[in-house]
Amino acid sequence: xxxxxxxxxxxxxxxxxxxxxxxxxxxxxxxxxxxxxxxxxxxxxxxxxxxxxxxxxxxxxxxxxxxxxxxxxxxxxxxxxxxxxxxxxxxxxxxxxxxxxxxxxxxxxxxxxxxxxxxxxxxxxxxxxxxxxxxxxxxxxxxxxxxxxxxxxxxxxxxxxxxxxxxxxxxxxxxxxxxxxxxxxxxxxxxxxxxxxxxxxxxxxxxxxxxxxxxxxxxxxxxxxxxxxxxxxxxxxxxxxxxxxxxxxxxxxxxxxxxxxxxxxxxxxxxxxxxxxxxxxxxxxxxxxxxxxxxxxxxxxxxxxxxxxxxxxxxxxxxxxxxxxxxxxxxxxxxxxxxxxxxxxxxxxxx
Length: 351
What we know:
Number of strands: 10
Order of helices and strands: EEEHHHEHHEEHEHEHEHHEHHH
Oligomer: single chain
Shape: globular
Structural class: alpha/beta
Number of helices: 13
CATH class of the largest domain: Alpha Beta
């Protein structure tokens, strides 16, 4: 199987107030090279974590690199049988020795996640000179819970459950990611409706990361649209913030157990053809990698043994959570597939 070489590089900004520029260079076995700049807007996360020197930031850069490599290497063009690719990825990190302690576990986790052959190499990065002067920092002691927030129904229920269970004076920190834009709109609509209805006032903040390929008109890179690596970037954004709050702060991953396992219902969905974004095997391997590099924050899915119906039923067990769910569920969009809701003939099931 031909190897696709993917190299991630970073160009420092001359202005310390501005973060520099990551780029991706792809070279195939024919020697053809294609380059593309990468989006990496992490201002919201910086407001929480405030660092570019920790292994948590290295993990964020690694996850961003895996996510973009997965997007940049077309399965149709670079696989032999239409799916599996062989990718050699080089990632610049500040703490090379620490990251190499988790290398095999990272590789094993990513192999399971995307269904490809991965060879991962960490290379030494120069210290970052990023020091934005005008970003207002948050009080980290305010946050009792860090939870992923995609805009789907499961993450909405995780948000509601988290707010209802908060101790007085504490907040939920919601971690969001969007590359294409539509995901961010779902998240914003939910939170806007909360504001308009006085729901959970002062009980949450959202930290947002936008990362992906900077594709311009005329770009000849053939991209991959299966997004198999999207969850590792999502998790890394959460771990970056959770580890800054406390080494004991878990990252909540609200996903029903049925979709987490994503049991193949026909022969066409076997193996990695079904997504493994929150599969227990992937979470276990990634947790092992994090522990190996010195990150003790845990990845926790409290809904692993529940179906989506179980999650909805449990959320409706008390009046406060049911009111919030009925009010907000029409703005949620699982898997960012709006057409699924548009043609769903049971949209008013909670009414």
